[in-house]
Amino acid sequence: TERANYTERLEKTVVERTRQLEEALGKEKELNELKTKFLSLVSHEFKTPISGILTSATLAGKYTKEEQQEKREKHLDTIKSKVKYLNTIIDDFLSIERLDTGKTNYKFSTFPLSKVLNEVIYDANMHLKSGQSIKYPPNADDITVDYDEKILELSLSNLIHNAVKYSSENTIVDIKAYQNETHLEIQIIDQGIGIPEHEQRFVFDRYFRAENALLSPGTGIGINIVKNHLENLGGNITFKSVQNEGSTFTISIPVTKSPSL
Ligand code: ADP
C-alpha cells in the first residue's frame, strides 16, 4: 500500500505540474498575442502618417518656383502636423511608462489659458474635415491657469483631436470654459459618432476602442493617460455621450490662484 500511496502522490504531483505548465504556456501565448496585437497596432498607427509625410515631402520638393511657394508651404505644414502627431503618440507611450513606474515629474507654472488653447487648436485645425470648425471659448483670454502646462496641453490636445476625429464633415467642435473659486472646467463638445452606451463603462480603460471608432486611427491610450495625469494633479475628467449625436468631455482642474493675481 505504501507503494500505491507513493504512486498516487506522484500522479497527483505530475497532474498538478502539468496544469501549472499549461497555465504558464497559456499565459505566455496570451502575452505573445498581446505583443503581436500591440506591434500591429503601432505599425499601423505609424505607417499612415509616414506615407503622408513621404508624399508631401515629394510634392514639396517639386514646387521650387517662386509662384509655387504657397503650395510648397501647404505641404510643409502637412509634414509638420503629421510629425507632430507621431510625436504625440510617442509621448503617449512614454507617458504610460512613466505613469506605470511612478516616474512622472510635474511642473507647475502660471500661464494664460489662451496660450495652450491657441497651440492645440492651431494643430487640430490641420486635421479638420470639410466644413468642420472649432469654436474657441470667448472668455479664454481672461483665464489664468496655475497648473502643469504640458499636462493641460496634452489633455486638451487629446480631447480636441478626438472630437475632430470622431465627427464627420460640417460639424462644430465647441469649447467652453467655466471658472469658479475652486475649479476651472473646460468642456469639449462634439456632434460626432458618440460612444455606444454598452461600451461607455470602458472608456477610461487603457487600449479601449469602441466598435464604432475602429475606422479611424487610434491607439486607445489617450484618454487613459489624460485621466491618470489629471487625477495625479487633483483634477478629473468625465463625459456624456449619445451614439450618433455626439459627446461632451469635461475636464476639471483645481484653481490655486485667483485670475487677477
Ligand atoms: P484613440 O482615439 O487613440 O483610440 P482615446 O484613448 O483617445 O484613444 O479614446 C479611446 C476611445 O474612446 C476611442 O477609440 C473611441 O472609441 C472613444 N472616443 C474617445 N473620444 C471620443 C469622441 N469624442 N467621440 C466618440 N468616441 C470617442
UniProtKB/TrEMBL annotation:
It is an enzyme of class 2 (transferase). The keyword Transferase applies. It catalyses: ATP + protein L-histidine = ADP + protein N-phospho-L-histidine. Keywords: Kinase, Phosphoprotein, Transferase, Two-component regulatory system. Residues 41-257 form the Histidine kinase domain. Its EC number is 2.7.13.3. One of its GO terms (molecular function) is phosphorelay sensor kinase activity. This is histidine kinase. It comes from Dokdonia sinensis. The chain holds residues 246 to 506 of 506 of the full protein.
